[in-house]
Amino acid sequence: MTAVALSRSRPVPVLRIEIRRSVVLWAVPLLLGLFYFDSFRTAAGFPPVWTVRSSVITSHMIADFGPFAAGLAAWVASREGRRKTGDLVATTVRPAWARQASALGATLFWLLLAFLAGVAAIYVDTALSATWGGPPLWPVAVGVVELVTFAVIGFTAGALFPGRFTAPLAAIGTFLLAEIGFHGAESVRPGTSTYGLLSPASNVPLGDVGVFYHVAPDLAIAQVMFMGGLTVALLGVLTLAPVVRVSYRGLLAAVSSVGRWLCVAGVALLAAGVAAAATAFSLAGTAKMGVSGWEIPALHGAASDQPIPYTPVCAGTSFKVCVHPAFSGFLSSANTALQPVAAEIAGLPGAPVRAGQVPSGDGILGSQGMNFSGVPKPGLSGAPAVYRFISDDGLAPLWGSSAGVDNAGWRAGFQQELVTAFVAGPPQAGPGPDTFVTQPTAAQQAVITALMIRAGSAAPQFGEDMTNGAPSAGATPAQIAAAAQRFASLSPSARHAWLAANLPALRAGTVTLAQLP
Amino acid sequence: MNIELSEITRRFGRNVAVDGVTLDVGPGVLGLLGPNGAGKTSLLRMLATILPPSSGNLTLLDRDPTKPADRREIRRRLGYLPQHLGYYPSFTVVEFVEYFALLKEVPPHLVPKAVAAAVEKVDLGPKAKAKLRTLSGGMLRRVGIAQAIVNEPQLLLFDEPTAGLDPEQRVAFRALIRDLGQTATVVVSTHLVEDVGAACSEVALMSDGKVVFRGTPEELIARGEAGQGVGDAPLERGYSAILGAARSTS
Q1: Statement: residue A274 has pLDDT above 70
Q2: What sign does the dihedral B138-B140-B141-B143 (CA atoms) show?
């Protein structure tokens, strides 16, 4: 190649050289493979609800990308030490912080590109199947900031301890950090310490999060503030690192050697970062559960608490089954499941004329002592009666659709909930915060079983609770099954007539097995 | 003078690597000779603004390297080839030289021409797009020389530059530094006295951290002829005679 040919090439900034030769490029195929087999497939198994699927960004994608980000960034940052180029670059005009900024920038460029490509894949897949709503951006912001934080943690470790073992140690360390954060977030309950919420990794959310109510951005803001603060503080440490290295000659000499303004910038970054992280930490301590998720009073906007207007989509004629439009893909299954049992009890006192989906929040969290006024409760209520169900119970087939679902089992369970609510009434709160006393009496179990059999489902399974060595329900499962068969073999009109006459007593639990026809 | 050293000392703990060196160097090529551990590399690293002196005054290109602004200007005009060249294996020859041109803040629009000229000067044009990991030790040394000269420095510091070069390349390198010495100050630290004889206009000989001889190669040869020097070449005899004298007085 001649000098003329070389001199015709365009000038290239340092960052572009770093991007072109970044070690992260080698890891991108591995990252994308990991993303597909973990994050993407997990998201595809979730209901096609934007908020639910986007939860994978912080719960799975960060676990996939984070340790690699830290390890790769540490590897890049330790390059001058490992490759023994320290003397060579030390004689150049560009200061260490500027060189490090270019190397970190190139590392982040590829990491974020791969990460955002993954987010785009999840969102495109969701867009193809979602029937309502749009892509939430807060999880993306939290994920990006968290990934940057992981990378900066690794980069700082690599810059301060430039050895060949720093990179694997940084990757392992951040993986453990993420695990600790996950367990911290997982253990957060209303009424307990809420600092664990600063970790964005958490359990799978309720199936209709962000559907009936907005997801309040409070927690996301605190998480971004906390991790952004950590990142800024670490950048301050990186800036001040040369001062620390030469401080054995005295602080003033060290400052003079590094440059006064650089020291001021480093101290300012460190102080600002620590302040932001500390503020976020204290804010997280004030979090409380609300109808729109975790709320932080200092950041909370009342608009988040307002329900999102929607028009339900319905099926059926005399007995209507309605779901939120976000779950319209499930309407047919729900309608097919509920119509037969609804027909069995139609016309009886208290029989539902309609089934509709209600927000999960109160149904799940009510058991933990959380009640939100104005939010409809799941179960059978009203006149004429309406059966209300929540997505996590009633729309179970939407979960894990890629892994295969026991549709017959789900259908029987869904029907059983409706029939149980009709025959046995609402579940009674038990002694503990997480327990319901839902066990119907022996006669109620027999009637529920008979109605299920008549609707074409398998006989439901009831737990066999024992009290002082005897069945709590007052009869053995065999006795209950025999009574159920007897009741199911009645003609529809006879069964209907008996129920019309005896339903109040049956619901009150005063009917015995022997009294069943 | 481009280099002015006054009673420069550098200590590493109790060890004195450079001991009260006073030296003024103008444009031309200065050969820095001395046995292992004489303090050549430490002196070169101080001249390269990597190491600060423990005591004494150092002025480079009429600037004080202890002041950040001055140090920046010195580095803008400095070329340095360390004894052990570190490099990034995934970079190509051009990218590596380009990278250092940019770190030395060569104006971006001049970078392509400067890189091309530097690569051609070390005869690496045909390998310009080769990854550094594919190059031999001698070629890597030439890449190191290219990055050192890419900013057309006024002060060039070479630490063992001809190590690993084949005879043909060594001859070419000597011609290159003679050429560079026309306008810049070039300091070449080496063990190879033939490099000094062929390329240097001046020689400084270090022993135990001190400069024990300063003169022309001819003066060094003359010391060998007059004294008890041993060796196959006249320069080697001068070198060993001065070192022998220095050791006997210390």
Answers
A1: yes
A2: positive
Q: How many residues does chain B have?
A: 250
Q: Do residue A251 and residue A342 come from a single domain? A: no
Which residue on chain A is closest to B106 by alpha carbon? A93
Read off the pLDDT of residues B176-216 as tens digits, 9 standing for 90 and up.
889 989 989 999 998 888 888 888 999 999 999 999 999 99
Contact B117 A23 (CB under 8 A): no
In a domain, A2, yes or no: no
> Are A215 and A360 in a shared domain?
no
User: Inter-chain contact A12–B119, Cβ cutoff 8 Å?
Assistant: no
Q: Which of A1, A8, A90 sits opposite B112 (nearest CB)?
A: A8
Q: Indicate the number of domains in chain A.
A: 2
Residues in CB range of A127: below 8 A, 6 or more apart: A135
pLDDT at position A59: 87
Asked if B102 lies within 8 A of A93 by C-beta distance, the reply is no
Q: Do A2 and B100 touch (CB under 8 A)?
A: no
pLDDT score recorded for residue A430:
52
* Residue A480 parent element (H or E): helix A477-488
Last residue of a domain, one of A273, A289, A305: A305
Nearest by CB to B98, from A4, A17, A85: name it.
A17
- Which residues on neighbouring strands pair with residue B206, listed in sequence order? B211
Mean of pLDDT values over A17-21: 91
Give the per-residue pLDDT at A24. Answer: 93
Q: Are strands A379-381 and A386-390 parallel, antiparallel or unpaired?
A: antiparallel
Task: Mark yes or no for CB contact B90/A259 under 8 Å.
Answer: no
Q: What is the mean pLDDT of residues A422-430?
A: 69
Closest-CA residue of A relative to B130 is A1
Task: Count CB neighbours of A124 within 10 A.
Answer: 10
This complex has an ipTM of 0.88
Tokens standing for residue A416: 């059983």
Identify the weakest region by mean pLDDT among A35-39, A115-119, A131-135, A246-250: A246-250
Same domain (yes/no): A329, A269: no
Confidence at residue A12, expressed as pLDDT on a 0 to 100 scale: 59
* Segments in A86-165 forming alpha helices (H): 86-90, 96-129, 138-160
**A3 inside domain:** no
Q: A219 with A364, same domain?
A: no
Contact A211, A324 (CB under 8 A): yes
Same domain, A361 and A253: no
Least confident of A39-48, A150-159, A225-234, A377-386: A377-386
CA distance, residue A11 to nearest chain B CA (Å): 6
**Contact predicate A250/A167, CB 8 Å:** no
Chain B nearest C-alpha distance from A141 (Å) = 33
Are A177 and A318 in the same domain?
no
Which candidate, A66, A284, A75, A278, places its Cα nearest to that of A179? A66
Q: Answer yes or no: do A250 and A348 share one domain.
A: no
CA distance B157 to chain A (A): 11
Inter-chain CB proximity B88 and A79 less than 8 Å = yes
Q: Do A20 and A165 lie in a common domain?
A: yes
> Which of the listed residues A254, A289, A305 is the one where a domain comes to its end?
A305
What's the rounded Cα separation, in Å, for the pair A444 and A516? 10
Residue at A6 is within a domain: no
**Under a CB-based contact definition with an 8 Å cutoff, are residues A239 and A266 in contact?**
yes
Any CB–CB contact under 8 A between A303 and chain B? Answer: no
Mean pLDDT, chain A, rounded, equals 82
Whether B169 and B138 have beta carbons less than 8 Å apart is answered as yes
In a domain, A348, yes or no: yes
Residue A483, domain extent: 313-462+471-515
From B155's Cα to the closest Cα of chain A, the distance in A is 12
Contact partners, residue A142, CB within 8 Å, separation at least 6: A57, A58, A200, A220, A223, A224, A227
Q: Which residue has the higher pLDDT, A408 or B15?
A: B15
The H or E element spanning position A351 is: none
DSSP structure class, residue A329: G
